[in-house]
Amino acid sequence: PMVRFVVCVALLGGASGAAAQPLTLGDALKLANAQHPLLRAADAGVDVAEAGIVTARAYPNPQASVVAGTQSTGAGTVRTGVPAYVFEQPLELGGLRSSRVGLVERGRESSGYARDEVRLSVLAGVRRTFYLVLRRRAEVETATENVRFVEALRDRIKVRVDVGEVGRLEL
Length: 171
Fold this sequence. Notes:
It contains four helices and two strands. By secondary structure, the protein is of the alpha+beta class. It has a two-stranded antiparallel sheet. Helix 1 (2-11) runs parallel beside helix 4, helix 2 runs antiparallel to helix 4 and helix 3 (37-57) runs antiparallel to helix 4.
């Protein structure tokens, strides 16, 4: 929507200044490719997927925790304030890491395809809007020419009415 507005304004002469250049289709596509927010978001999605590969290749971090609470035995004896210290280091057995990395790499591939889809969609919208603006411009020119033609015809009929060749009803 934003690109459509920018292209329409630029094509219809919305840019002020004597040295304003007409916007070509190539310029519109370059502008959209460089600055469209949907394309920037799609690029960011690919960057996130690439960062996920780095994370997937890393060794899991160890975890340490302290738990304190009451402890009771079956005989009804209750001990309070018994701390438990836990240190955990997850072990990756087999091909867990390679599977995880492979999965994330497929995710990056998928993000690349999604980015390409967004790019094609945005550029197709720019092309469609560009040609729609050209069509509307041609329609405005045709309508303006029709108005001039009808005014000239009316002027000729007015002269004939003024001379008395035809009745006032013709006007």
